[in-house]
Amino acid sequence: MNRIPECKVASFRSSELKMKGFKIHEITGPAYPSLFYGRRDFYKIVLATGHMNICYGDQTIDIEDTFLFFANPHIAYSCEHLSPEQKGYACVFTEDFIESRERKENLLNSSIFRFEGIPVIPVNSEQAAFIEGLYQRMLSVYNGDYDRKDEMLRSCIDLIIHEALRIRPQNELRQKNAATRITYLFMELLEKQFPIETTADPLRLRTAQDFAESLAVHVNYLNRSVKEVTGKPISVHIAERIAAEAKALLQHTSWSVADIAYGLGFEYPSYFNNYFKRVSGVTPNSFRKSKGKV
């Protein structure tokens, strides 16, 4: 997949991010050049006012006015700026910067950072004012000499994410009993296989039995639990996720259909063609052409 050039910010250097694990800047003036589809090596949270078209995984989201955008290094995305000017703030940080395991699990695995979640949250003027205050506090702390600035910056990130979750309540899986716990583990295991980056490391877990063996439970128990919690059997979850990844690869990469088939774990491209047509209604080539790819 194509690497995405980062935002046009004079003070931004990837080496600085890797050294400190965190970077923040204010967005002002003409809109940045559109970013090509791909992944970054860091998490990103943006508060912006303007008109943008965001392609996130296999989703396309058109957003205007003021909004929060959440991106993570596991999901490819692109941003097309449709406004002549933009304003707002952006912070980027590595997973190592988050530091504690509990904080990573509670926040970075929340639905706003997951593939099936919606990464864009519109905010009203009151909500925007509160979040803007957090960004201004982060800028002040980042540029200051407080000796525990990292912890204060983490706390501000926590507050932004919690405010986003409060604005848009989520139906996240709760580990209240055995069924929800095993369902949560299944969903995590399914998602960790994506995105597909090379045919040399193809999809390994593709059936309910594969997941049951990895989780050391009986396949009937796993399927019953997942269906009870989500309303859908395991086979549907797997099919939807593979189809979503296939669409993203067809639309945003130059991989051949055969390479995509092998990357998704299909033994033969013809098997993938039949599978894709069954779940999407069109052949891979027809889907690619409909998206303007040749």
From TrEMBL:
Keywords: DNA-binding, Transcription, Transcription regulation
Family matches, as PANTHER family: ARAC-FAMILY TRANSCRIPTIONAL REGULATOR (PTHR43280), TRANSCRIPTIONAL REGULATORY PROTEIN (PTHR43280:SF32)
Organism name: Chitinophaga tropicalis
GO MF assignments: DNA-binding transcription factor activity; sequence-specific DNA binding
Domain of life: Bacteria
Signal peptide: none
Cross-referenced InterPro entries: Homeodomain-like_sf (IPR009057), HTH_AraC (IPR018060), Tscrpt_reg_AraC-type_HTH (IPR020449)
SMART domains xref list: HTH_ARAC
Keyword Transcription: yes
Domain annotation HTH araC/xylS-type: ranges: 180-290
Name the UniProt record assigns to this protein: Helix-turn-helix domain-containing protein
Entry-linked Gene3D superfamilies: Homeodomain-like
Transmembrane stretches, start-end: none
